[in-house]
C-alpha cells in the first residue's frame, strides 16, 4: 500500500512527506533495525516517540541534555518544569542536529524559542490568521463529531496565506476591505501575494499600475511582481463525504 501512495504523492508534485516513526516497532531492541521504508527520493520529515527500552539505559534522564538521552519532540510543553536545564536542552538539541550535517532542514515542533538555523512551524489549519509564533492554535476533530474534510482549494489558500503573511521580510498594504497584498523584495528580486478574502465575490485590484482579477477566496502569486504564475483558486478536486455509521451501541458507560 505505502509504495503506491508514496509514488502518487511524488507524481502529484509533493517533495516532502511527514510521518511518525514508531520507534519501538522499527527498533524493538537497541541497534536492531527492523524495517526502513523507501520514500522514492522524497524528503522525509520524521516525528517519533520513545521506545520502552530507553528506560533501561543506565544514567538516562529524560528530556535533559545528558549524554544517554536523545532528541525530544514538542518540548515546550514541559520545558518550564526543567528550569534552566530546559533552555539548555533546547540549545543542545539544536547544536546536535546541525552538527550531524545531514544537508536537510531541521524543524523543532511547538517551540517559540527555536534557535537558528532550525525552522519553526505551524500545526494549525489556518496559520495565516492564527499564527503568532511557532505552532499556534491547532484544530482537532472530536471523536463522534461531524466528519470534516478540508478541500484542496482551502489548503492551497491557507498555506499560501501563511507564507505571504508570516514569512520573511516584506511590506504589506490594503487593497480593499477584504483584499490585501504582500510584497517581498530582496537584491533586485520581487514576489507579490495578492489576497482576496471575500468568499463570494471576485475582485479587481490595482497593483503597480496593473489590474488583476482575484477570484473569491483566492491568492495570486506574482513571481516577478508583474505576472501571475499561480492562483489558489485553480486547484480543483472532486469533493467527497465521510459518513459515520454506528455498528454497536451501549446502554451505559459500563
TrEMBL record:
Its EC number is 3.2.1.23. This is beta-galactosidase. It catalyses: Hydrolysis of terminal non-reducing beta-D-galactose residues in beta-D-galactosides. GO terms for biological process: carbohydrate metabolic process. Belongs to the glycosyl hydrolase 35 family. It comes from Glycine max (Soybean). One of its GO terms (molecular function) is beta-galactosidase activity. Residues 181-235 form the Beta-galactosidase beta-sandwich domain. Residues 1-35, 71-157 form the Glycoside hydrolase 35 catalytic domain. It comes from the Eukaryota.
